[in-house]
Amino acid sequence: MTGLTFTPDPRPHIQLLGGFRLGFGPTPVHVVPGAQRLLALLALRESPVPRGVAAALLWPEATARRAAACLRSSLWRLGKPAPLVVAADDVLTLGVEVDVDFHRACALTADPGASPDAVTVLKAELLPGWAQPWVLAEQDWWHQARLRALEALSENFLATGDRHHAHEAALAAVQTDPLRESAHRTLVELHLADGNPAQAVRQFQRYRRLLRTELGLEPSPHIHDLIRPLLRSAR
């Protein structure tokens, strides 16, 4: 896998990373909010969703009758450009021809390899700005999965001698979760491997200040052990 850039494929594709987008090849398609939510729900679930469940999740403030009507309206709209949604036996599924960037990104978290393009994919947030309960759980999973993948990616780059991209992946993990110690520890180790002890100490000190300010905690002995010899020699 080399990335999630869309190709000139005439099949419909749904982008969930970095924001919602529906397109056919390079051509974007305008989708009303209700239909966007329906497509996103089906893309995230990857399994048949009963109509009643979809209506209740997507229009939680509406009555059951009103929610069902909104669902019918969204399905009618989505039936215009292509068979994006399949309705059978009172359940809904995404059309088999629909490509979803998030599905490929999930596969990347299981095996990030050592592709520079993977850093860009793993840095992207899932449906930023969406706060529906059924989205929040997926966002939390993606947040943790991509952090682990970025750290693994950094290790893979380092194993191949590519310290530049190893540093880029580790930095992306720190930017994604500034309080994640394992990501800071990876950056400290990379600075030490590059022969930059001063930068390693600065990285540690930035993390320690942030941790104290945000949580009133101290870094673990593990990261302290990396820096302690340098702090002794500076005295």
UniProtKB/TrEMBL annotation:
Keywords: DNA-binding
Domain Bacterial transcriptional activator residue range list: 100-231
GO MF: DNA binding
The organism's place on the tree of life at top rank: Bacteria
InterPro entries associated with the record: AfsR-DnrI-RedD_regulator, BTAD, TPR-like_helical_dom_sf
Organism in which the protein naturally occurs: Lentzea albida
Pfam families registered for this protein in UniProt: BTAD (PF03704)
The protein's name in its UniProt record: DNA-binding transcriptional activator of the SARP family
